[in-house]
Specification:
It is a single chain. By secondary structure, this protein is of the alpha/beta class. It folds into 3 domains: 215 residues, Isopropylmalate Dehydrogenase; 128 residues, Isopropylmalate Dehydrogenase; 39 residues, no CATH class. It is built from 13 helices and 18 strands. The protein has a 10-stranded mixed sheet with strand order 4-2-5-16-15-6-7-14-12-13, with helices on both faces. The protein has a two-stranded parallel ribbon with strand order 1-3. Strands 8-11 form a two-stranded antiparallel ribbon. Helix 11 packs antiparallel against helix 12 and helix 12 packs across helix 13. It is globular. The two termini are 18 Å apart. Bound molecules: NADP nicotinamide-adenine-dinucleotide phosphate and magnesium ion. The site of magnesium ion has 3 residues, from helix 9.
Length: 404
């Protein structure tokens, strides 16, 4: 096809499973390839191929993302016992996202895609609240045990030769109870902070971070200190020049401020807060199909994907030849995010321009009343009657907009 945008560096393309794998192919065919001479290094992370390669393909894909710097990933199945049976797997392979996160050492940022007509459950939220979750340590890598009446629990620290450095009594148990040990690493907290500061700068958003340092005077306080020190030393001036700011305050205060805000902030969360709050924020913005996600490493590598899974129930209907109306917006956003970033890094404004035009076309299509079934009950716009399209029909409607 003539006149297509030419790329320099390829994107790392990670294909996936089920309904999102079907959408993946259609998005490329209907929306991207007519306009872009797409260059990708392709990895098939579909479960069959992960099983065939004993999951080597996931590792190779993550290493390629490290090498090329920008990846786009389709949703993938994280196998459980039922999947082991369904796919006759050699073993219960680990979560591909976990593997990629481990290799890139990144932070996940989740941002809702906002359209007029779909009002968040919190009416004051006009702009996206982007949530960054620290994905290491705390209760997710904890050691815990039950204690019986009469037991004593201590926090004991030994040096590398095994000599005891300190011993603190946690509790002398008068009755039966429970006890837990958690940890985190300065290096990991720093990496998280760097990713957050960089994301805030790149997207021109203020950064809010909250923990419970008044109660946890050493543990949570360490998070606060690392963020503050790094900010003062390396980011304050850059933030001021960009007209944004960083604020640390107690997590309770942040929650209250978030509810009162109009959005437009990057909210950094410790891992437990992020786990819980990301579900709240995603739900409040309407549909899982409208939540985008990007993994950013401290050294500036990017992996874009949808926040939702492989939409299994729709896939089984598709296999039976039935019509599906699966929302492709978050998966389209994965592509536009990756193309924009590639365009930025390689100095190809036309590529960035195309990605923006495609996003605009998606938003205009929905605002004009054409959408997938999940959005119909949420949509309210005067003078516009929402029309439910099937999965492919929605992509054609977007393509029509894109051309006009
Ligand atoms: P899911 O695929 O996100 O789907 C859950 C339900 O949410 C769907 O059944 C559907 O509801 C609705 N939904 C989600 N995305 C939608 C979309 N784009 N359009 C319309 N409706 C959408 O989560 P799941 O069923 O828990 O997991 C399915 C598989 O995905 C699992 O094997 C899991 O391991 C994997 N997963 C992968 C990732 C990832 O790769 N990042 C993330 C999460 C889950 P209705 O059926 O009611 O329409
Ligand atoms: Mg959660």
């Amino acid at each position: 096809m003539a006149g297509r945008i030419v790329m320099k560096t390829p994107l790392v393309e990670m294909d996936g499973d089920e309904m999102t794998r079907v959408l993946w192919k259609w998005i490329k065919e209907i929306l991207i390839e007519p306009c872009v001479d797409l260059k990708t290094v392709y990895f098939d992370l579909g479960l069959k191929e992960r099983d065939r390669t004993e999951d080597k393909v996931t590792e190779e894909a993550a290493l390629a993302a490290k090498k090329y710097g920008v990846a786009v990933k389709c949703a993938t199945i994280t196998p459980n016992a039922q999947r082991v049976e369904e796919y006759n797997l050699k073993q219960m392979w680990k979560s591909p996202n976990g593997t990629i996160r481990r290799i890139l050492d990144g932070t996940v940022f989740r941002a809702p895609i906002i359209v007029n007509g779909i009002t968040p459950y919190v009416p004051g939220w006009k702009k996206p609240i982007v949530l960054a979750r620290h994905a290491y340590g705390d209760v997710y890598n904890s050691v815990e045990t039950r204690a019986a009446a009469g037991d004593s629990a201590y926090l004991v620290l030994c040096d590398k030769d095994g000599n005891e450095r300190s011993r603190n009594l946690i509790k002398q148990f008068g009755g039966d109870g429970i006890v837990q040990g958690v940890h985190n690493l300065d290096e990991s907290i720093k990496g998280f902070a760097v990713s957050c500061f960089n994301y805030a700068l790149e997207n021109g958003m203020p950064l809010w971070f909250g923990a419970k340092d008044t109660i946890s005077k050493t543990y949570d306080h360490r998070f606060k200190d690392i963020f503050n020190e790094l900010y003062e030393r390396e980011y304050k001036e850059k933030f001021e020049r960009a007209g944004i700011y960083f604020m640390y305050t107690l997590i309770d205060d942040i929650v209250a401020r978030i509810m009162r805000s109009e959005g437009g902030v990057l909210w950094a969360c410790t891992t437990y807060d992020g786990d819980v709050m990301s579900d709240m924020v995603a739900t409040a913005y309407g549909s899982l199909g409208m939540m985008s996600s990007v993994l950013v490493s401290p050294d500036g590598k990017y992996e874009y994907e949808a926040a939702h899974g492989t939409v299994t129930r729709h896939y089984y209907r598709y296999l039976k030849g039935e019509q599906t109306s699966t929302n492709s917006v978050a998966t389209i956003w994965a592509w536009t995010g990756a193309l924009k970033k590639r365009g930025e890094l390689d100095g190809i404004p036309a590529l960035c321009g195309f990605a923006e035009k495609l996003e605009r076309a998606v938003i205009d299509t929905i605002e004009g009343g054409k959408m997938t079934g999940d959005l119909v009950p949420l949509f309210r716009r005067e003078g516009v009657v929402p029309e439910k399209l099937d999965s492919r029909g929605f992509l054609y409607a977007v393509a029509d907009r894109l051309q006009s």
